[in-house]
What we know:
3-stranded antiparallel β-sheet; 4-stranded mixed β-sheet; 10 helices; alpha+beta
Amino acid sequence: MKTIKAKTIYDYLRIVSILSGGGTVLWYRGSSSLKYGLVPSLYWRKQARWERNFVHKFLVRYRAYVRESISNPWEIYALMRHHGLPTRLLDWSRSPLTALFFALTQEPDRDADRVVWILPPYHLNKYTLGTESIFCPAGMASRSVRLGKKRQLDLDAYLPKALDPSDNYKLPLKPIAIESPLSIPRIAAQQGCFTLHGSSQRGLELQFTRRAAPFLSAVILKTKGNHDAFMEPLLSWGVNEETIYQDLDSMTRNILRTEGIS
């Protein structure tokens, strides 16, 4: 893993420009602390054994709040994550500014340095799957994919057992990068995408050999005592709670903030 320090928001944008040079596709994830690592909620909460129960109860109840039932199991899994149930999905964004917003606004009272993780997703899948492909399982008629001449992977094996239509026996070990279904407006607004953990509960940053690890970068934002210097330019560029969350509550918070009312 490569660690880089950014003293200003302009340092951060320069780092992004360098890392994305040559057309490299990058995904970004903001966090309030480096120490949290890259662990999905199901694992950092240590609730893996409850995954089946979470899915079952969600399937029983969600139709009371969603007008149309959803038949695609990958859309259901993304919807669970979107509404706060613990999953093995880890949120990323294609937008470095969206990730920066999350890094700056999580734990708002904490005066400390923050971090934006940067991942080249094609490199991740090359390392874990042996193919430089990013799949969108929610949009695939057949989710059985060929990996090289002799390997085959059923992507549904990554689903919780209660959602897996193929009834795979074993959860794959390594994490993969996947495109997210954009049927959820907030995910679309945030240019959302996911990494999906397999059975290994270690953080993404800990699952690779020294040879492979450098493809993952952590940009340390020197925001301690300097938060506004990062936040004010971001807000002036139109990246705010309303554009990120796309709902009425966020719209009203944005109105109050711009009027100087806390």
